[in-house]
Specification:
The complex is a heterodimer of chains A (113) and B (112). Chain A has no helices and 11 strands. Chain A has 113 residues and is mainly beta. In chain A, strands 2, 4, 5, 6, 9, 10 and 11 form a 7-stranded mixed beta sheet that branches. Chain A starts with a strand and ends with a strand. Chain B contains no helices and 11 strands. Chain B is globular and about 45 Å long. Chain B is mainly beta and 112 residues long. Classes of the chains: A mainly beta (113), B mainly beta (112). Chains A and B meet through strand 4, strand 5, strand 9 and strand 10 of A and strand 5 and strand 10 of B.
Chain lengths: 113, 112
């Protein structure tokens, strides 16, 4: 069964460093999303992406964040200069149409020291 | 702005007994979802509810949706230890780009 994959599963970085989180959505899906979950808290929407551009972004998704679909298969989330408060689980999700549900990847745990 | 509230936040259950988790949302939505999350893991989709009066059941879990009251419930019948997890409801709206807005989650612990 097709699934969303994410790499790495765990990323440890120093404050101020850039990180890139990678996702491979399900192959025929057209809508892509990033969410984050700070430990013990709810899942929060970051950004949605469709037709090679951002559809919507939340207040969390400031200038330090960017997304890209560099090669038609990967979907990446870049954090330019990480802060301690960026430590969280980051989930990628995709869907094939606006009528169907999103499928979530296993997540990347980001730890900023 | 769409808001989703769950209660209770924490539920200590005894095996064999029945319990209900409530999910309220503030504006009309297109779909309501229930997810299960085990510690350190991803979100496992349990139910997708599309219309008023929808009821879905899987094993000991049953979810229902009342769109007029903007309320969904997740009912657990005869709880067992394996159901210990955190349960989230989430809603989406086409008008909001189909992003999911999650409730705060209900942490369920089933004790023998």
């Amino acid at each position: 069964e097709p699934e969303v994959t994410q790499t790495p599963s765990h990323q440890v970085t120093q404050m101020g460093q850039e990180v890139i989180l990678r996702c491979v959505p399900i192959s025929n899906h057209l809508y892509f999303y990033w969410y984050r979950q700070i430990l013990g808290q709810k899942v929060e929407f970051l950004v949605s992406f469709y037709n090679n551009e951002i559809s919507e972004k939340s207040e969390i998704f400031d200038d330090q964040f960017s997304v890209e679909r560099p090669d038609g298969s990967n979907f990446t989330l870049k954090i330019r200069s990480t802060k301690l408060e960026d430590s969280a689980m980051y989930f990628c999700a995709s869907r094939d149409s606006s009528y169907n549900e999103q499928f979530f990847g296993p997540g990347t745990r980001l730890t900023v020291l | 702005e769409l808001k989703v509230e769950q209660n209770p936040l924490f539920l200590s259950m005894q095996e064999g007994k029945n319990y209900t988790i409530y999910c309220n949302y503030s504006t009309t939505s297109d779909r309501l979802y229930w997810y299960r999350q085990d510690p350190g893991k991803s979100l496992e989709s349990l139910f997708v509810l599309l219309s008023n009066g929808a009821v879905k059941q899987e094993g000991r879990l049953m979810a229902s949706l009342d769109t007029k009251a903007r309320l969904s419930t997740l009912h657990i019948t005869a709880a067992v230890h394996d159901l210990s997890a955190t349960y989230f409801c989430a809603v989406d709206m086409a008008a909001a780009g189909n992003k999911l807005t999650f409730g705060g989650g209900t942490r369920v612990l089933v004790k023998p």
